[in-house]
Amino acid sequence: MRLLLFSLLILFSACQPSERPSPTQSRLTEIPRLLDRPESTRHGQEWDQVQNRYTQYRDQILSEKEADKALLQLAQLFTVEARVTGEHGHYYPAALQTLDALLDSAPDDRDLTFLALTTKAGVLLSQHQFAAALETGKEALEMNPYNAQIYGVLVDAQVELGHYEKAVELADQMVAIRPDLRSYARVSYLREIHGLVDPAIEAMQLAVSAGLPGTEEAAWTRLQLGQLYERYGQPQKAEAHFLHVLTERPAYPFALGALGRLELERGDYAKAEKWLTQAAEAIPELSFYEDLVRLYQATGRNAEAEKTLNAVLLMLQDDVASGHQMNLEFARVCAELMHDDRRALEYLLREYDQRPDNIDVNRELAGLYTRMGQTGEAQFHLRKAARTNSRHPELVSLQSEMGVDRLSAN
Predict the structure, then answer these.
(1) What pLDDT digit, counting tens, does each position of 291-346 carry?
(2) Using alpha carbons only, what angle is made at residue 147 by residues 146 and 149, rounded to the nearest 5 degrees?
(3) Residue 254 near residue 224 (C-beta atoms within 8 A)
(4) Are 57-178 and 182-249 in the same CATH fold?
């Protein structure tokens, strides 16, 4: 009789729904830190608000009071801080760790799961894990096909993988759901990819007008508009927009770096150094240090160039260690700063294996093979780079050098 009762008890227990593990019982063994912001990136009350939100989310997670929601909000805070501070190696892994803890706890709230997957896909994009981002984004899309944010993630993933027709289709759906800064910016990117430079500028102007002045998002968008003007031969307009950013968001590092790059192109090395040094002191952004290496090399300051180049290589290695795919960035450093085309080719071919249809990767390969005198390979990649009728200046220059008409390159 006792054996029968014991067996029934086991059976009854097995039939009961298992208790869902709390987020703190899953993989989140320690809540990632919030790093202190440099003074130039605090922007008044913004930094105080960030610290207060971090403390609130941390306390909610530890007390398990609305912990699921707090985990999502903490991850989203980390993604913003990554861009504001340039501390990618800390914040992107922290965001993924936090999101995985949430997803592993299998929240009952379907909307929360959707937002967690969408945010995770965005972080994977930032780490250049484009195929993984696409798969995660598709999983989120199945849960909610009516949210504009997930379409933005999917547009970016398809663009990076070179699936441009699919990206256009997704961008159209995004704009139809929510015409705003984010959707207009993606329309601009796609227009530029397809050689529609003036319409690309118009779309980015719409994105700028849709932004809230002073926010990081609005500053980034105006920066993109300035870079469009810079890329297509209108440096004075570019400079005006970079300076405008600084009136709305003082000491914005990416605007400082952009102004430094403009002065570097003009050959005004004193002004370039002033802007670039300010930018590099604010955040550890790779491009600022790369431009400083170019400046030091151009002015014969070889010891400073070597020291800064070593810092660039350490930054790249740190990014790789924290989960970034950095083959394209390594290739550019090897080719442009170290003048090591063979090593650059190794990195570019690794990137090509992952993204054979991306026009930027193919353009880089076409340029590198041209410098190396491998005409057949250069022409092959040039055709792939030109298949969207892009008018990127580097592509147009290569086509002219090789005697290839833009339209016949398809």
Answers:
(1) 999 999 999 999 999 999 999 999 999 999 999 999 999 999 999 999 999 999 99
(2) 150
(3) no
(4) yes
**Separation CA 239–CA 262 (nearest Å):** 8
CATH number for the segment(s) 251-311: 1.25.40
**pLDDT tens, residue by residue, 210-237:** 999 999 999 999 999 999 999 999 999 9
The DSSP secondary structure of 290-311, one letter per residue, reads HHHHHHHHHTT-HHHHHHHHHH
- Consecutive H or E run containing 341: helix 341-354
Contact at 8 Å (CB) between 308 and 355? no
Residue extents of the structural domains in the chain: 57-178, 182-249, 251-311
106: left (phi over 0), alpha (psi -120 to 50) or beta: left
CA 272/CA 261 separation, integer angstroms:
7
What is the chain's mean pLDDT, rounded? 93
182-249: CATH topology: 1.25.40
- Name residue, tokens 């500053």: 219
Q: Is the dihedral of CA 246, 248, 253, 257 positive or negative?
A: negative
What is the CB neighbour count within 10 angstroms for residue 256? 26
Cβ of 406: how many Cβ atoms within 10 Å? Answer: 15
Contacts of 213 (CB under 8 A, 6+ apart): 248
- Looking up tokens 């290739």 gives 331
Please name the residues in contact with 380: beta carbons below 8 A apart, sequence gap of 6 or more.
none
Q: Which residues contact 397 (CB under 8 A, 6 or more apart)?
A: none
Q: Which CATH superfamily is domain 57-178 in?
A: Tetratricopeptide repeat domain (1.25.40.10)
Rounded Cα distance, 286 and 282, in Å = 12
Residue whose tokens read 């014991």: 6
d(CA 103, CA 107) in angstroms, rounded, equals 7
Total residue length of the chain: 410
- State how far the Cα of 184 lies from the Cα of 205, in Å rounded to an integer: 9
